[in-house]
Known about the structure:
The complex is a heterodimer of chains A (about 500) and B (about 325).
Chain A: H1 7-22, H2 27-55, E1 59-63, E2 72-76, H3 78-97, H4 99-105, H5 111-130, H6 134-153, H7 158-189, H8 194-207, H9 211-228, H10 238-244, H11 247-273, H12 275-280, H13 283-304, H14 308-329, H15 332-361, H16 369-372, H17 375-378, H18 380-394, H19 400-413, H20 419-444, H21 462-480, H22 482-496
Antiparallel strand pairs in A: 1-2
Chain B: H1 7-12, H2 14-23, H3 45-62, H4 69-99, H5 113-126, H6 131-139, H7 141-162, H8 167-175, H9 186-208, H10 217-241, H11 246-273, H12 293-317
Amino acid sequence: MDFIRNFPCFSIMLCLFAGIISSGVKGRTARWINIVLLTTVTILSACTLFYTLSTGESFVYVMGKFPAPWGNEIRAGVLEAGMALFFCIIMLLSLLGGQHKLIAEVEENKIFLYYVLTNLLLSSLLALVYTNDMFTAYVFVEINTISACGLIMIRQVGRTIEAAVRYMIMSLLGSGLLLLGLCMLYDLTGHLLMSNMKESIAAIVAQGEYTIPLIVAIALMTVGLCIKCALFPFHAWLPDAYGYSTVSSAAMLSSLVSKGYIFLLIKIIYRVVGFDIFNNTRIIDVLFVFGLMGMIFGSLSAIKENDIRRMIAFSSVAQIGYIYMGFGMGTQYGMVASVFHILSHAATKSLLFIAVIGLTDVSGGSRKFIELTGSAYRNKWAGVTFTVGSLSMVGVPLFSGFISKLLFAQAAVQVDGKMLPALIVLGISTILNAIYFMKTVIRIYTPVEETSYPSVTFKDMKLYAIVLVFFIILNIILGISSQPIVDMIEQGLAMFA
Amino acid sequence: MSKLKPQKEYEKTGAFRFLRWLSGTKDPYVGVVEMHPQKEKVIPDTTILERMSETQMLRDKVYDTQHNKLLRAFHRIYIISAVIFCIALVGLLLVTVSYLPPTGDPSNPANNTVAERYIEQGLEETGALNIVSGMILTYRAFDTFGETNVLFIATCCVMILLMIDDELLKKQEVQNDRRFEPKNDMILQGVAFVLCPIIFIFGIYIILNGHLSPGGGFSGGAIMGAGLILYVCAFGFKKTQQFFNEHVYKIAKITALCMYGLIGGYFYITGANGIENHIPLGIPGHILSSGIILPINFCVGLEVACTMYAFYALFRRGGL
């Protein structure tokens, strides 16, 4: 067996070790451990990605000496390795970009805990991505939930505590539903390993037994994961959690945590239930409708918002709606578009959160639009980056958002019954996106005669500016060289089946 | 006829003290145990009124149900629909359960090769008489490592929320520690003096016999944690800190988790690569047997005991 096959296991274990060791050191050391860890895991994931691309097939890694249905397994293919690589890059950039705010907003003695949480969060994300076992997935969903709560409340303000409590209640409800569904599936199949579950479910469906419990179990798991990643009717926890937590947390929560759950849902659809069986249930129609509603209502809430961080948070609701609309189409193209949108949204949303913090910092820390007038002149780097993010969100060519909208439209054209609503709502949502993002861009580029706020230059924020440049590059790479990435996604999804 | 003792001599005998205790004329603990009656928290009336009026004002402003009929209707519909939704969900789940395979039927899908191998070959492959331990710590060792990390991260989150860093606040909290309990309670100390060693030994017994009898790291660790908590309640933090302070806690926690990680990692990687692993299984039934289960149980037990105690200490006074 090739040595590279060990890398997924290494990266998960390294994250756990780094988290454990960070709990015994001071904040600065913990930060260095975290940076070294993220770089190492990035390299390991990149190696895994190239390995899977070169061999052209996925591989299963047995955790321990007991094979398939008895022991634990992880599995790596193109999509998994690519997702892990992407998550690591986004996490590294978010942490570096929000570092100065983290030092300012978090008590000095508790900073090491932040890095403990991020390391364990990364381990849980990697485990969710790589796992081939439903119970392992559940265990790491727990770690993910608890560490996300910690990330929200580490900035100790009243609003963040309230947001963390809300998040915890909703998220635990989601975990509970996931566990219920998982128990029912275990009762029906007698397995916890994804591939064995899929075989058993196919046999059950072929025999026509247990139809009702099977559908209920799938629905419970889907709804549980939807609550955890804030699909439209379950998004009440989201604006406070993203709007008031420290900026790295907001960037990571919106672009990594919710995406981890969505990726788990994709895995469940393909590897546990089976794509066709999932599409034959009516659940995808519900997802489709909720996705469309989320696209419109999320944008409407964002337009009404007067706080720039909360506005971006509400925009997340709309973008999650896009992803579920892709699921709801029930075709391979819709799925590819959704997976691409996961990447595009993760890259853009973390960019927006990090850019906004530069704008609010030069406006006296206020997030109200009236104070932000002309802030792009005071912090030119953040202004340009925010504009890039906005254009990408609206869907202007060159940037990643355009490609995902194009893919969604292409996918919608190929579905009979759902073409019209999907295209109409896609159009409306794009206009609404343009309204609130362009409003903000115009606002930050409106010159003001006299201002009491100081300007900042490159010298004051070297690390921050470099991070912003990397974010822009990432976004443009996704926008320009989209075809190889889409091919990779297709190849990865083919490996899933 | 017995001889009558003089009063002074009689007062020294046990019988007199027993009779005195029986009749209740003297409490043997008065003057020996420091007793604090619980202080009732007094809140001046004015602040209560102020707060109430403020809350009321806020509520009126947000939910102006008096004038806003729509909002009132919405509130009603909200409650009614929530109740209906819950009932519908409960009904749906009950209906689903009736369709599930019946409990205890041998032809159930859950009774398959997986459980069969655990039961039939578990002893041979893991060396553990306790099949459950063998299953969670050998066959599914990765899950259990994740589960242990859940405990670890839960302590981290509680630390974020409750740990007090400010020196002044810390001192205040230490002084107020005995707010609701008497100091040096003789009864508690007497009981703890007898019970604590027994609890610790029992906990260690359960951890070390995890692979032989019901129990294991999680349950044994919980028992040891309970023993530590009893010790703190009886003898106070000062005495406990002589052997279990923040430093020791950190070292114990990190060593336990790292040991577990190393053993687990060794097991996964050797197993996956087909390398022979050098941890002997031993003779089933002996205390030193069953490969990785015994050391892992030990690590888990240490971690669980630390977690239990840390929760208690953090909730009680915001620091270890």
